[in-house]
Amino acid sequence: ILDAVSAKTKSYVGIKVAFVYSMENKKEKISESQEGVLLVNGKKFNLKLAGQEVVSDGTNMWTFISDANEVQLSEPDNREGVLTPANIFTIYEKGFKYQFLREEQSKGKTLQLINLYPEDATEKSYHSIQLSVDKTKKQLSSITIMGKEGDTYTYSVKEFTANPPLNDSDFTFDKAKHPGVEVIDMR
Q1: How far apart are CA 133 and CA 138, in angstroms?
Q2: Which residues of 88-117 are buried (b: 16+ CB within 10 A; e: fewer)?
């Protein structure tokens, strides 16, 4: 199942995903939900979520916080097993054990549920990730990350577009478009 998803994902030049991000902490009685958009092209990404835009050309990463008119410049964390916008659809390829749970019907789709367990769990802030795969489309429908502190983070795909029109400018931060922006270089 995962090999088929990976092969299909890698066949695309780029991906555009509209999604809903949800965070739940039962202990603290916190439940939040926000919508976002993600563009991915190889190791490059552009993520817009909750008043922030995180952009990476694969070498540099800019985190723009619109309310503060501030951008933080850093290097993307490309270590194996670190979940990033660029690898969210292929993270399972290395560093995980996996377990098929079951198939279930949801909104007219057959979903295949798979749990991922990191091989080096002591290094991770989560203990498992659950993938929900659309059986017909061979695409991820949702990703749920189970944190060690009891938090659950879910990314549910609302709309998936393969091979959207993308430009190099989608993956860099243009300071000229943000007059007076404060740049904080954290490299």
Answers
A1: 6
A2: bbebbeebbeeeeeeeeeeeeeebbbbbbe
Take residue 166 and report the two structure tokens written for it.
């993308």
Residue 87 DSSP code: T
pLDDT digit string, tens, across residues 22-44? 999 888 888 999 999 999 998 89
Q: Name the token pair of 19.
A: 């999604």
Please give the model's pTM, rounded to 2 decimal places: 0.86
Cα–Cα distance for residue pair 41/33, rounded to 1 Å? 26
DSSP lists the bridge partners of residue 74 as 61
pLDDT digit string, tens, across residues 70-113: 999 998 877 665 677 878 778 788 888 999 999 999 989 999 99
Across-strand partners of 97? 117
Containing 65, the helix (H) or strand (E) segment is strand 61-65
For residue 176, count CB atoms less than 10 angstroms from its CB and return exposed for 0-12, middle for 13-18, buried for 19 or more: exposed
